[in-house]
Structure to design on (297 residues):
């Protein structure tokens, strides 16, 4: 999928030399989970954050919506520091989808769960209902409206958690492995919603181990290793660079490894998708294969 480059305006979200450490004994040298991270999220962007488990990706996500507060540095949402606002005040501005959907579900029915956020914004009942129905429809789960969310399968619970955050209408979304447990159709519907929101100027941070997903949808990729930002750039540059990925303890996809092996034959090393690879391979094949007798006739 072609992802348009966002227009560089005032960022929706900014981290300025942010470091974070969890509790440590008094007098001990802090063992920072994140170290001097600076980045900005602009209107229309979907920025992917990749890195090994334990690299600091989820800590970064929780700093973005105020669940954690920086030990050093500043996190700003629309130019305002998160330190000055409560999590409840920040939620309408930065929606957060947890990696584990069970951390977000509590109401006796799916519809009530999805309605919780909009209702807490003080919206009129008709607007709450409109948002609930829109979120359920967008993710194709209207049939689940009267069911208990915690009695659904994992994929169903994931979709309900996503719907609840989408219904808030937050201009910034933080998505921690949002397609985990989803089938292809459900994942596609989610990203259709996200791209519609990007077109109107909303932005999102995607945390994912799925390089194919990142390649298809991200406008920019940030690589985290050992709590530090070690690389940043367009998906094609980052995801197809084995040496760069190795710095973060990551390996390229099988597709990238195969493209690099075939580069001497003319296959570009920076193909991002199976479709791109197939087209490049077909060009090489047509150029190099022997001409048959019937074609010569």
């Amino acid at each position: 999928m072609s992802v348009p480059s966002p227009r560089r305006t005032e960022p929706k979200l900014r981290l300025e030399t942010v470091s974070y450490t969890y509790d440590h004994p008094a007098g001990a040298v802090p063992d920072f989970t994140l170290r001097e991270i600076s980045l900005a999220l602009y209107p229309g962007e979907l920025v992917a954050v990749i890195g090994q488990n334990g690299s600091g990706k989820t800590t970064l996500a929780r700093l973005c919506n105020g669940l954690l507060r920086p030990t050093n540095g500043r996190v700003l949402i629309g130019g305002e520091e998160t330190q000055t606002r409560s999590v409840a005040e920040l939620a309408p501005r930065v929606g957060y989808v947890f990696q584990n959907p069970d951390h977000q579900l509590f109401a006796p029915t799916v519809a009530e769960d999805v309605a919780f956020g909009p209702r807490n914004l003080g919206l009129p009942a008709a607007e709450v209902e409109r948002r609930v129905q829109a979120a359920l429809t967008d993710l194709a789960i209207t049939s689940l409206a009267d069911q208990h969310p915690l009695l659904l399968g994992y994929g169903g619970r994931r979709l309900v958690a996503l719907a609840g955050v989408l219904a808030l209408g937050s201009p910034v979304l933080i998505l921690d492995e949002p397609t985990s447990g989803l089938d292809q159709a459900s994942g596609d519907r989610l990203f259709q919603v996200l791209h519609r929101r990007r077109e109107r100027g909303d932005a999102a941070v995607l945390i994912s181990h799925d390089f194919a997903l990142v390649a298809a949808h991200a406008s920019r990729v940030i690589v985290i290793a050992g709590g530090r930002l070690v690389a940043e750039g367009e998906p094609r540059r980052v995801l197809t660079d084995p040496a760069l990925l190795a710095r973060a303890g990551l390996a390229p996809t099988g597709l990238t490894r195969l493209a690099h092996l075939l580069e001497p034959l003319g296959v570009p090393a920076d193909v991002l998708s199976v479709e791109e690879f197939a087209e490049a391979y077909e060009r090489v094949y047509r150029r190099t294969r022997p001409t048959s007798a019937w074609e010569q006739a």
Summary: Residues 253-297 form one domain. The CA atoms of residues 19 and 205 lie 18 Å apart. The radius of gyration is 22 Å. DSSP finds twelve helices and ten strands in the chain.
